[in-house]
Each structure stands twice: as structure tokens, then as C-alpha cells.
Amino acid sequence: MTAAFAAWFAAHRDEFIALRRDLHAHPELAFAENRTAAIVADRLEAWGLKVTRGVARTGVVATLHGGPAAAIGLRADMDALPMQEANGFAHRSTIPGVMHACGHDGHTVILLAAARYLSETATALSGPIHFIFQPAEENEGGGRAMVEDGLFERFPVAAVFGLHNAPGIEVGHIHVRGGPITAGFDVFDFVVRAQGGHGAWPARGGDAITAAAALATQLPGIVSRHIDAADSVVLAVTRIEGGTAYNILPTEVRVSGSVRWFSHAAQGEIRRRLEMHRQGLTLSYGVEVELDYQCRYPPVINDNDAAQVAIGAARAWAGEDQVITEFAPVMGSEDFAFMLEARPGAYLLLGNGAGEGGCHVHSPRYDFNDEAIVHGAGLWVTLCQRFFTDQGTSAD
Ligand SMILES: [Zn+2]
Ligand SMILES: [Zn+2]
Predict the structure, then answer these.
(1) Cα of 359 from ligand 1 centre, angstroms
(2) In DSSP terms, which residues pair with 351 in a beta bridge?
(3) Which of 17, 8, 18 shows the shortest CA–CA distance to 120?
(4) CA of residue 104 to ligand 2 center, whole Å
């Protein structure tokens, strides 16, 4: 089956690369993926899949019908980032300030290629396959929006799988295992308020600047002194805003940052400690302090059984030595976590190469490596076949 897919893809390779470059040249931001979603839905319909548009606004779900076995879900993200592309190649972004700098153009085409191949060749699928094209992975939680829009009630699956390209990993190599893969991601905003006034008389009005500066230097210490060293957490102060002139003490200074975590225990302790700092600062500096803590993305935790199916598929497709099952989780975050909270499944990393195409994601010179399309699509095709075979075996 592996060879059959590789041969089929070779005949369609140029078409899929052209499509990937077309998407790259026309990037769209979160929940505005109208052109992309229309192309995706039109192609899937033309290939004979049953297509549902407008799931969580710009999301698309395509279904390939099969037998009575429980369905599998495969997910790709479609959105781009609000940044200016610095590449000069022909397929560079045509939209100022918007760029496919995370390779979601590649993920979309990978899933399209798999859907087309399976729709043309799979004559007796044991169960349905739902191809999920989600909006707004970057910052806006499109994965959560799809789950809240009834994704898994409307398209029930026994397991759901997602992948992301990984610059720095050789093309064709796949990283997958059970357990934590990407960190949870929360953000916090402190607002420090004082009466303010003339810079010559800080004693009269309180000093929001000094209080905010103390906060910014104290907060990272929460991790080193109150979180078990074996439980990975990053707390980063990433923004301080306040003040307008040499001789004015501002009335308000903001201190913001992010927290990356894997365990709910660590997340809870961080929240508790931030609140203690809020109270402590109020007392020691005589200022008013407000704290807003927002939970953004939970961690991606791969289900062990689903990961085993994915490992089997990856080895069958790519070969034993191309599949890495021991690697450290990354502190970045991914909203596929919302789908994994709702259903078991696994998230895989697909090598994007270390060379010219391997430039890091979210860099203005990044580009998805077209040579990875065949590897991602071949992996999805093999995974569907393995998923139904394994299910059949375990159901007996
Ligand atoms: Zn990204
Ligand atoms: Zn991404």
C-alpha cells in the first residue's frame, strides 16, 4: 500500500506543490480563511467527498463514508500569521503583513492529498474518515471553536490525529509517542495603579514604575522556588508598558507575560503565587494591583493507545529508522489540545528539513518544504489503513 501511494503521489506531485504554493501566496488570518476554505471544500467535493462548510465559521469537514467501524478523524490547520514575509521567491505572500510562517499551507495540502487518494482508492473502508480543516490555530483557538461547534457530535470519531511540520528534523522523519508533546499556555496581565504626579515628588503619589519593575523581576522566581524542578514550567514576563515623560510618574503600568506548563498542579500553583504577589505588592508599595489570568491552550497529551497506532503507521510508511519515539516535549503550544481533551488521539511531528526550507517557524524567512508533502500524506493514508485494521483486531 505504501508503494501504491508513493506511485500515485508521483503522478500528482506537481499539482499538489502548485496548490501549496498558491496557498502560501494567499495567506489568510484566523477565522478569515475564506479563500482557503473555499478551495479546500471545492476540491474535496470534486473528488466525491461529502463536505460540510462553515464549521466554526471558516472550518471545513469532509467525510469519506465507510463500514460500521468507529470513525477516525484527521486534522489540518489553515490559518496564517500577522507578519511580513521576507522571502523573495515567486510564491511569496501577496498580502502585506500576512504570511504562512508556520507551514499550515503545507498541512492543508497534505490532508487534501490523503483525502483525494483515499477517495479514489479505498473501496471497502471499515469505517468513515472525517477530514477536519480547522481555522485559527494561531492565538485564536479555532480548535476549541470547532469542538464547541459540535465537531465530535456531528462527526463522531474514536480517535483524532494531527501533525505539525518540524524544521530541524530531517524530511521524512516522524516524531511520535504517548504522553505530553506541547505545553499548556496561559497569559497574565498585571495593572499597577498609583496616584502618579511630578517626578520630583514620588513620596506624594506612589510609584507604579518601581512597583511594576519589582514585580517583573520577582515573578520568574516563582518557578525556581515553588515548582518542582521535574515539572517543566516557563514563566516569562514579556511586556512592560507605562510612562510618558522624564518628569511624570505614571498612574498606571502594565506587566504582562505567559506561562507554559504540563501539569494542572503546576498551573494551579502558578496562579496561586501570582495572586500572592498581587497582594504582596499592594502592601509593600502602597499601590493598587489588578491581576487578570487567562487560560489559553491546554497541553497536548497524546493518548498511549492512539500513539501506538500512529507509531505503527509511521514505521510502516517511513521505515523503522525514520521514526523517533523518544524525545522531549516542546514548550510551545498547539490548539489541537482542545480536540485531544474531547477525544483520544495523537499529535505527530513531521520533519521539514534542516536546510534552506528548514528555517524556523514564525520566522519571516520560513517556508514549508514541499518535499514533506508526500511524507505527511503517506503517513495519513497508512494511519487510516492501520487504524481500521487494529480496530478490527481488537473488536474480535
Ligand atoms: Zn505557529
Ligand atoms: Zn503551526
Answers:
(1) 13
(2) 166
(3) 8
(4) 6
Strands 129-134 and 72-77: parallel
Please tell me the distance between residue 138's alpha carbon and the centre of ligand 2 in angstroms: 7
User: To which residue does cell 511630578 refer?
Assistant: 198
Instruction: Using a cut of 0.70, tell me whether the model's pTM lies above it.
Output: yes
The ligand with the least distance to the CA atom of 350 is 2
Q: For residues 365 and 363, give the distance between their C-alpha atoms in angstroms, rounded to a whole number.
A: 5
pLDDT tens-digit series, residues 163-201: 999 999 999 999 999 999 999 999 999 999 999 999 999
C-alpha of residue 16 to centroid of ligand 2, in Å: 20
**Cα–Cα distance for residue pair 11/191, rounded to 1 Å:** 59
Percent of the chain with pLDDT over 70: 97
Model pLDDT, residue 210 = 95
Q: How far is the CA of 153 from the centre of ligand 1 (A)?
A: 27
pLDDT at 395 over 50: no
* Cα angle 182, 183, 188; round to 5: 145
Domains (ranges, CATH) in the chain? 2-182+299-395 (3.40.630.10), 184-297 (3.30.70.360)
How far apart (Å, rounded) are the C-alpha atoms in residues 277 and 128?
A: 52
| Confidence grade of residue 396 (pLDDT, cut at 50, 70, 90) | very low
pLDDT tens-digit profile of 14-55? Answer: 999 999 999 999 999 999 999 999 999 999 999 999 999 999
Distance 224 CA to ligand 1 centre (A): 28
**Model confidence at 223: pLDDT above 60:** yes
Q: What is the DSSP string of 81-149?
A: BSS-----STTS-SSTT-B--SSHHHHHHHHHHHHHHHHHH-SS-SS-EEEEEES--SSS-HHHHHHHT
Query: What is the distance in A from the centroid of ligand 2 to the CA of 311?
Result: 21
Rounded distance from Cα 94 to ligand 2 centre (Å): 20
> From the CA of 99, which ligand is nearest?
1
- Compute the distance between CA of residue 137 and CA of residue 299 in angstroms, rounded to an integer: 14
Residues 330, 352 contacting (CB under 8 angstroms): no
Tell me which ligand sits closest to the C-alpha of residue 185.
1
